[in-house]
């Protein structure tokens, strides 16, 4: 399998109308924004894109729309995570048929399965396709279910198309262990940071980034990514601290925080789907105040 | 001015005789070994030194020995964390009286104190002495109790001798939360990690670490620090991978396995106090094989 290097991956939100239907006009606009503002690839719909709030048919339609709109200009990575292994595998097959370049999948939702079950889950999803598969490690989002270096060793043995891990555990020991073993077992194995905390992973060997904040601060995210890619790690510290500050300001509100910040930057992506609630006006004003204090945001594009 | 607490600082284990009493002669040899093999500071008794299995009079006796033997060649800090805060206060006063260069103190044990209680604790401790105080953040061992970035900034504002932190979350987000807050207020604040996690922390403003494996592989520790400070990331990656493998080896029944490994390096330091087990002959043999596999037996000093 020819190695697919992801580089800097933007993870667009999913715009919803007032009636909470997918706002495809806005989504098209958003995809254009990401393409011209530094994305090497797109991954969608990630959790920031409210993937779990999209029924199956809508999720497939959204992916097809995105791939058509991108029209080969950038690789599209399809997010196929699901609770049931068979449902996730069906999404994976659909993604390949729709023209996705790769797939990415988390551990199963809800079940908090032991390692042997997690392994079989990933194997069945990966075996459903011939395109590359990334595994997403996010123990904080998945009630503690994590991807271990040992699991990855086994997955490499079972899946020829398992090419890397997107890490949101932020756990140094895991990343060091993974990058000591996996690249020896699989040529071109990649570690990607799952959020804009990239300097430490890049020191350890990460070569890619899934960037949920790229719709808000595409220039700063690109600058951080390029310095890390070029291993200018001391130089990257200031950009890293700015992005850590932004992440810390937005994190408590989750996707509502990301959508609020996009609105503050002049890129309104509409409503959230239940059960997520929007920020109330006072919280929104507080957030705008916090964003104003982050100097780097002044250099970022406003509007579309 | 740069902090004097930097580089790979060694925290000696506590040598015991076969009857589990303190072995002063071997402790003196061990201190001297660390000073001669490149330790940038000595800190005793960490958890690795079985601090909580020692009586307060024992801790004072060996603290005095540490200051006497090191004799100003490198800084000596005393770890004063104890189950009873009143004991901590007494150990801190004692450390100052005997001429130590600083103290290290974790957030209080057992009670899962609130942020206000942690604040009150460090204020009282720092105001009771003139020595520099290094704090110690270890949420995974203390039921999630941790020092936040906001609390760090407050403590730095209020306490001129609040000089650094041993950050033992081993996680990019937590390290950055604290380093951003602390270094903005006090540029020479010592951002240190536990174990030897230098590769992910030095590019973020880290200036050193305590050491898990330094009594086995002092050369490896110094080489890793030098590579990180020089920004030689490919070499640092290779060395960090080795150090992290050693951490996996010793983390199991820490510090019993470490003491077992020291036997194999020709530096026996006796048993470990209950409830910790003492490494069996089989465990020692396993450790010996692993050290051989990693090349440690060829590159690191044997004997005292």
Helix content of chain B: 40-55%
Radius of gyration of chain B over all CA atoms, rounded: 18 Å
- Low-pLDDT segments, ≥5 res of chain B: none
Query: What spatial order of strands do you see in the largest sheet of chain B?
Result: 1-8-7-6-5-4-3-2
Largest interface: A-B, 27 and 28 residues
Structure class of chain A: alpha/beta
Radius of gyration of chain A: 18 Å
What general form of chain A does the structure show? globular
Q: Strand tally of chain B, please?
A: 8
Largest sheet features of chain A: 8 strands, parallel, barrel
Distance between the amino and carboxyl termini of chain B: 35 Å
Average pLDDT across residues of chain A? 96
H/E series of chain B: EHEHEHEHEHEHEEHHHHH
Identify the quaternary structure here.
heterodimer
Q: Encode the helix/strand succession of chain A as letters.
A: EHEHEHEHEHEHEHEHHHH
As a percent range, the share of helical residues of chain A equals 40-55%
Explain what the structure shows.
The complex is a heterodimer of chains A (304) and B (304). By secondary structure, chain A is of the alpha/beta class. In chain A, 44% of the residues lie in helices and 12% in strands. Chain A has helices spanning 24-36, 56-70, 85-98, 115-127, 149-158, 172-185, 199-204, 218-229, 237-250, 254-264, 281-292, and strands spanning 8-10, 41-44, 76-79, 102-106, 133-137, 162-167, 190-193, 208-211. Chain A has an eight-stranded parallel β-barrel with strand order 1-2-3-4-5-6-7-8, surrounded by six helices. In chain A, strand 6, helix 6 (172-185) and strand 7 (190-193) form a beta-alpha-beta unit. In chain A, helix 3 runs parallel beside helix 4 (115-127) and helix 8 crosses helix 9. The longest helix of chain A is centred in the first third of the chain and has 15 residues, at 56-70. With 304 residues, chain B is an alpha/beta fold. Chain B is 45% helix and 11% strand. Chain B contains eleven helices and eight strands. Chain B has an eight-stranded parallel beta sheet with strand order 1-8-7-6-5-4-3-2. Chain B is globular and about 50 Å long. In chain B, 52% of the residues are buried. The model of chain B has no long low-confidence stretch (mean pLDDT 96).
């Amino acid at each position: 399998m020819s190695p697919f290097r992801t580089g800097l991956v933007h993870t667009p939100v999913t715009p919803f109308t007032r009636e909470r239907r997918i706002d495809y006009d806005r989504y098209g606009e958003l995809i254009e924004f990401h393409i011209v503002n530094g994305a090497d690839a797109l991954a969608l719909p990630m959790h920031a894109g409210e993937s779990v709030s999209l029924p199956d048919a809508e999720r497939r339609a959204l992916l097809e729309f995105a791939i058509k709109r991108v029209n080969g200009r950038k690789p599209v990575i399809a997010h196929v995570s699901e609770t049931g292994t068979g449902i996730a595998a069906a999404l994976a097959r659909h993604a390949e048929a729709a023209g996705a370049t790769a797939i990415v999948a988390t551990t199963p939702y809800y079940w908090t399965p032991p390692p042997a079950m997690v392994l079989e889950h990933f194997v069945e999803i990966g075996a459903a396709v011939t395109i590359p598969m990334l595994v997403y490690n996010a123990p904080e989002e998945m009630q503690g279910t994590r991807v271990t270096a040992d699991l990855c060793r086994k997955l490499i043995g079972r899946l020829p198309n398992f090419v890397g891990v997107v890490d949101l555990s932020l756990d140094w020991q895991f990343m060091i262990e993974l990058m000591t073993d996996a690249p020896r077992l699989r040529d071109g194995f990649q570690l990607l940071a799952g959020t804009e905390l990239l300097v430490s992973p890049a020191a350890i060997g990460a070569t890619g980034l899934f960037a949920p904040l790229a719709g808000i601060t595409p220039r700063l995210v690109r600058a951080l990514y390029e310095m890390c890619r070029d291993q200018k790690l001391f130089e990257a510290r200031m950009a890293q601290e700015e992005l850590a500050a932004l992440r810390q300001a937005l994190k408590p509100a989750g996707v509502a925080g990301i959508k609020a910040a996009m609105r503050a930057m002049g890129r309104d992506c509409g409503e959230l789907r239940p059960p997520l609630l929007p920020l109330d006006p006072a919280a929104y004003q507080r957030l705008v105040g916090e964003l104003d204090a982050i100097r780097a945001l002044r250099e970022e594009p406003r509007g579309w | 001015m740069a902090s004097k607490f930097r580089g790979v600082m060694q925290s000696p284990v506590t040598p015991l005789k076969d009857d589990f009493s303190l072995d002063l002669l071997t402790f003196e040899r061990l201190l001297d070994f660390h000073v001669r093999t490149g330790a940038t500071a000595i800190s005793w008794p960490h958890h690795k030194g079985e601090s909580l299995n020692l009586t307060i009079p024992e801790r004072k006796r060996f603290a005095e020995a540490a200051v006497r033997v090191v004799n100003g060649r490198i800084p000596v800090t005393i770890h004063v964390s104890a189950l009873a805060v009143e004991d901590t206060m007494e150990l801190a006063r004692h450390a100052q009286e005997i001429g130590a260069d600083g103290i290290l103190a974790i957030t209080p044990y057992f009670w899962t104190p609130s942020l206000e209680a942690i604040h009150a604790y460090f204020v009282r401790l720092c105001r009771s002495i003139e020595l520099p105080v290094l704090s110690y953040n270890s949420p995974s061992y203390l039921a999630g109790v941790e020092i936040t970035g906001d609390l760090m900034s407050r403590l730095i504002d209020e306490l001129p001798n609040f000089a650094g932190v041993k950050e033992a979350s081993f996680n990019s987000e937590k390290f950055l939360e604290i380093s951003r807050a602390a270094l903005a207020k006090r540029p020479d604040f010592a951002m240190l990690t536990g174990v030897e996690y230098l590769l992910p922390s030095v590019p973020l403003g880290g200036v050193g670490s305590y050491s898990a494996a330094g009594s086995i592989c002092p050369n490896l520790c110094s080489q890793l620090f030098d590579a990180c400070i020089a920004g030689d990331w490919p070499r640092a990656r290779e060395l960090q991978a080795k150090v992290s493998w050693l951490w996996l080896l010793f983390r199991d029944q820490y510090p019993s396995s470490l003491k077992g490994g020291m036997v194999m390096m020709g530096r026996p330091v006796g048993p470990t106090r209950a409830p910790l087990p003492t490494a069996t002959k089989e465990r020692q043999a396993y450790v010996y094989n692993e050290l051989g596999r990693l090349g440690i037996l060829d590159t690191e000093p044997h004997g005292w």
